[in-house]
Amino acid sequence: MSLAPAFAISASGLTAHRMRMDVISANLANAQSTSTPDGGPYRRQDVILESAPSPFGHVLGSEESGATSVRVARVVEDQQPPRRSYDPGHPHADDDGYVAMPNVNPVTELVDLMAATRAYEANVAAVNATKRVLQAALEIGQA
User: Which terminus of the chain has fewer Cβ atoms in its 10 Å neighbourhood, N or C?
Assistant: First the structure.
């Protein structure tokens, strides 16, 4: 039994959840951006993850079934409409004094960030557990 698939699966989780944290950080950073190069306010981004076959199963000739990793399928824009905020002095206010604000809810983003962080930490724990198993196997071989 090879431990390479375990490392590959955990590494894919680390990469995917790091991407989630990057996108959430961008959402929080742009929570007050009322103008973008495309026009209009910033639109919240969301990461879509999908299951993928483990990359090392085929390379090592492993026939282990069920070994899957995760990958980022795509990053999509949230289609919720922008919030309207009354601020007649704002440079981007319309004729009625309302400003189109990004559809970013900081509370939702922070909850998503905590979930992504926990998933990242779980993958780090899996890598460390796999390393401990490998170390124990090496110590058995030395005895």
Answer: C
Contact of 74 with 96, CB cutoff 8 Å = no
- Furthest-apart CA atoms within the chain: distance in Å: 81
N- to C-terminal Cα distance for the chain?
21
Q: What is the pLDDT along the chain (143 residues), one digit of tens a residue?
A: 577 888 889 999 999 999 999 999 999 999 999 999 988 999 999 999 999 876 555 555 555 556 688 999 999 999 999 999 999 999 999 999 999 999 999 999 999 999 999 999 999 999 999 999 888 888 887 76
Q: CB-based contacts of 139: which residues, under 8 Å, 6+ apart?
A: none
DSSP 92-124: T--TTSEEEE-S--HHHHHHHHHHHHHHHHHHH
Give the amino acid at 125. A
pTM given for the model: 0.83
